[in-house]
Amino acid sequence: xxxxxxxxxxxxxxxxxxxxxxxxxxxxxxxxSEYIAIIGPxxxxxxxxxxxxxxxxxxxxxxxxxxxxxxxxFKEWHKIGYVPQxxxxxxxxxxxxxxxxxxxxxxxxxxLFSSMGKEDKEIVxxxxxxxxxxxLKDKMVGTLSGGQRQRVMIARALASKPEILILDxxxxxxxxxxxxxxxxxxxRLNKEENITIVFITHDVGVIADDIGRLFTxxxxxxxxxxxxxxxxxxxxxxxxxxxxxxxxxxxHEHKEF
Amino acid sequence: xxxxxQYDFMQRAFLAGVIIAILAxxxxxxxVLKRYSMMSETLAHSALVGVAVGLVAGYNxxxxxxxxxxxSAWLIEYLRSSFSLYSDAILAxxxxxSLALAxxxxxxxxxxNNSLFSYLFxxxxxxxxxxxxxxxxxxxISLALLLxxxxxxxxIAYDEEVAKTSGIKVKLLNYLLVTVVAIIIALSIRVxxxxxxxxxxxxPTVTALQYRVGFLQTMLISLLVSIVSVISGMILSFYFSxxxxxxxxxxxxxxxxxxxxxxxx
Lengths: 257, 265
Fold this sequence. Notes:
By secondary structure, chain A is α/β, with parallel strands linked by helices. Chain A is 29% helix and 25% strand.
């Protein structure tokens, strides 16, 4: 058996706000080149979970390791690309061209006093090409459509050369055609670029063919290894129920607690 | 028109004015984008407490204004980032509290009202040789810091959380920004006055935003608007014996209104 360090190793994670349980006792691992969708009802804790993985919220209890390091000791944040829920709602007046936004992806990789080098510029151009926004590079972000903005935000995340992309409801405010194209793009990034993808969504039907695992979060987590069967399996029917129980899975084994 | 440069005080005022125009517009770009506009007003009023102490105790008011403004900036940033309090309410409390304290200190100390008036509204007559050195030294350091971290500050202004998850030291840079802004505000009150410096920081950037261009162009337009306003304001102030700060603000407002009309189409 080949031992691999997971990108995320989450153990017994709980999060309470004012005594109310938002997430309780969640454990999972995310490995390199996985393609994972996270679904669940509003207020079920999906976004909170992702925010904890990114160090934006502190868990009430439990442990998160990123690339084998405890979260507080983790420094290589450029390995993680994050596109938040509100990403497509850019302030229309914010003075940023598409190029300005994608350049941001290189900011944390550059040392002090150094401006964008040739390599940085190539990576930015490459990221815009992959996301199909190179033609828009001089356009103001505020003037783009929801779908175009979303692709710009992902191009920004790609410019830091991440090993994992985390997207929170990337299709909010995006039309159906753009959504389908968008999922094709995510699938390509996963397969061709070997980028691990984790995203929160409501549209499981559209993406069920592509994804590797499905996490359903409603205070607890139900992890389904075969999303194609997910729509009919019991786990899904429990998704919106309050008695959801934890099924913890490693790639091909199925344990129930 | 060149006759006004025969006066030493006008040469000093112009030099100080142009440096402040540069500092206010560059820092103002980040202030506006981070929605810190009201913070700049509050810091300007806090700086006034330093001026009052300086006037009464006989120290250089500019130096003490710098110290008080920085302390106030740190307090505001700490309250903003540590507690989910209503941040605009905090600013309103500190703003009026500082002004009240400054007036009471000056009254108790019996300092001349005219001195305080010049710090409130700016006076080109009051810029001394020492002030020029202080403005040059602190101004150069502030500008160097802003330009060094401009990409990071821009990223933070765009989205603080995404910047944080990209490994940018958001907290440290936020403190750095408010410190630099506090210094620039304290330096500016000689020429523009504490009640009006907020306008010189905010209006050039808001004017530039009307043109809907990228970040660098926005900063350059803001810089141009600021320099033109300060120079024309000081010329008008000299010939019509008007308070320099108020005249500068009227000039920048005029350009702002013109930009609004031009870009409305």
